[in-house]
Design a protein that fits this description.
This protein has a domain of 57 residues. Helices cover 83% and strands 0% of the residues. The chain contains 3 helices and no strands. By secondary structure, the protein is mainly α. The mean pLDDT is 83.
Length: 82
Amino acid sequence: MKMLRVIYPIIVLLLMFVGNSFSQISQSDRDALIYNMQEEKVANNFYTAMQNLYGINVFENISKSETMHMKHVKSLLDNFWN
């Protein structure tokens, strides 16, 4: 499952940068990206809670990374889903 979470955004990014003529992604790719964004949100919530509970900076850093991941996935969805 973790591999799927990584592969779909990479594939979409590759398609974006190789200059192909695809302007849309398939419904299954869109669903995978949405699933990825949901997982990032759950992870973000978890690490935010751990930061609030323990006050260890590493949790805050990871939470910020999860937020950045969500923004990138949203950007992919916005660019490829018309």
